[in-house]
């Protein structure tokens, strides 16, 4: 008998008892290789001694001090470290407790910025289909995933959605990658002109689309064109790096590889690496200055923002990622993971695409490789892969609706950066077992 409201109301998950390196153990002693860091969280594995020590030291000296009264050393130090590495122009960090809160904060910050600068008529967001930005009502509204939103639609603010940059399915015959990228980026301009650019607050996008598409990076030039369009119409660019940030793609910030800097950027997941719940919304000096010159007060806040223990964990994690060389390791091991995936599944009749960057990889499953026809959703292929992998002792992150929110299946991999070559072998072997079982 339990009083916990589980994710799945009809089944009880095994009880996780212990974590060690790349593995989680349940209370029966069964070992699971954490091939997706849960959902791209555990970038340093499950027993990092430096992060554990930082949390223990901090909680023993200062547990909590409300940000309505105080700042704290861990918050100051973490903000300084993040900004030292952040894309050009980003200057201030607003700490929260997770990804949805970071996105919600970004949306409200962007809206209030418009009010502060005397453009209150800006009330809309534009984002992309097949995106995921979180489950709170604002974040869900900008997200573009049909099934996650459906029953909550009456509660959600109206948002425009343009096409994702998803070359595997969107690029046309004879079209270069660059031309495809320009074509889909130009959808932003068309939508701005349709709704009236003076009514739009911001464009929101994930540099590498995670949960809903399975590690899909934009093609070269896409985000540069997006940045140009935003600048031309005075629309803010919000990049959501909750999943793809913090070294996951081989650079601390994913958008570094696209050569653009946003006005507002969200991070979470890998920032606390699972040791503490923490997220953050970074913004440019220009945005912050509008608050200084205007009302002087961002009308937002939650009790636990800037939590000292969470910030201490985040500081230890980011130190390890940067000075500790873990981002470089993610880039290097990510290439090995990619080659191993291609060797094992490159000719698999039901793997249509293998993609991603760094330790963020996706495999798209198809009924037929030539036509790219997806499986009938009724077969529940992604659910079967998840169950079969878990049975085999592998945690991965399969999802459905890849093509259009209804059809399509993919598997997302986001293992810890400490993964060894042997463990890459173990991951591939167990994933193969799962594919065989699910597709049988
Ligand atoms: C890109 C992106 N944004 C926001 C979120 C929401 O984060 P959280 O689940 O921590 O609220 C997620 C979660 O998967 C995400 O992938």
From TrEMBL:
The keyword Chloroplast does not apply. Pfam families: Aminotran_3. One of its GO terms (cellular component) is cytosol. GO terms for molecular function: pyridoxal phosphate binding; transaminase activity. InterPro entries: Aminotrans_3 (IPR005814), Aminotrans_3_PPA_site (IPR049704), PyrdxlP-dep_Trfase (IPR015424), PyrdxlP-dep_Trfase_major (IPR015421), PyrdxlP-dep_Trfase_small (IPR015422). Keywords: Aminotransferase, Pyridoxal phosphate, Transferase. Its cofactor is pyridoxal 5'-phosphate. The keyword Transferase applies. Belongs to the class-III pyridoxal-phosphate-dependent aminotransferase family. NCBIfam families: PRK07483.1. This is Aspartate aminotransferase family protein. It comes from Celeribacter baekdonensis. The lineage of its organism: Bacteria, Pseudomonadati, Pseudomonadota, Alphaproteobacteria, Rhodobacterales.
């Amino acid at each position: 008998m339990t009083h916990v409201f589980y994710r799945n109301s009809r089944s009880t998950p095994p009880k996780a008892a212990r974590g060690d390196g790349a593995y989680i153990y349940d209370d029966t002693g069964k070992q699971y290789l954490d091939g997706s860091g849960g959902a791209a969280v555990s970038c340093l594995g499950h027993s990092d001694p430096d992060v554990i020590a930082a949390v223990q030291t901090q909680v023993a000296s200062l547990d909590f001090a409300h940000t309505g009264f105080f700042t704290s050393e861990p918050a100051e130090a973490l903000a300084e470290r993040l900004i030292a590495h952040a894309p050009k122009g980003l200057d201030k960090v607003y700490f929260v407790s997770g990804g949805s809160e970071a996105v919600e904060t970004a949306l409200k910050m962007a809206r209030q910025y418009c009010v502060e600068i005397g453009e209150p008529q800006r009330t809309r967001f534009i984002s992309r289909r097949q995106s995921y930005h979180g489950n709170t009502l604002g974040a869900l509204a900008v997200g573009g995933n049909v099934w996650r939103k459906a029953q909550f639609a009456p509660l959600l603010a109206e948002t425009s959605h343009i096409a994702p940059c998803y070359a595997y399915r969107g690029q046309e015959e004879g079209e270069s990658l660059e031309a495809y990228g320009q074509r889909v980026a130009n959808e932003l301009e068309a939508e701005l002109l349709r709704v009236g650019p003076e009514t739009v607050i911001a464009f929101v996008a994930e540099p590498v689309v995670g949960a809903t598409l399975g590690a899909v990076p934009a093609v070269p030039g896409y985000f540069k064109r997006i940045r140009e369009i935003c600048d031309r119409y005075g629309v803010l660019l919000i990049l959501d790096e909750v999943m793809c940030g913090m070294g996951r793609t081989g650079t601390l910030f994913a958008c570094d590889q696209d050569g653009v800097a946003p006005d507002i950027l969200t991070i979470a997941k890998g920032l606390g690496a699972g040791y503490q719940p923490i997220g953050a919304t970074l913004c440019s000096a220009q945005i912050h200055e509008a608050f200084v010159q205007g009302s002087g007060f961002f009308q937002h806040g939650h009790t636990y923002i800037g939590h000292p223990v969470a910030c201490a964990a985040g500081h230890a994690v980011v130190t390890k990622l940067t000075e500790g060389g873990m981002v470089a390791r993610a880039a290097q091991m990510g290439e090995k993971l990619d080659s191993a995936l291609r060797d094992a599944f490159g000719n698999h009749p039901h793997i249509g695409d293998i993609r991603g960057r760094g330790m963020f990889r996706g495999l798209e499953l198809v009924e037929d490789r030539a036509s790219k026809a997806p499986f009938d959703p009724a077969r529940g292929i992604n659910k079967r892969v998840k169950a079969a992998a878990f049975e085999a002792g592998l945690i991965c992150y399969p999802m459905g609706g890849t093509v259009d929110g209804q059809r399509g299946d993919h598997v997302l991999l986001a293992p810890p950066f400490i993964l060894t070559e042997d463990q890459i072998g173990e991951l591939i072997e167990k994933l193969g077992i799962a594919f065989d079982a699910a597709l049988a």
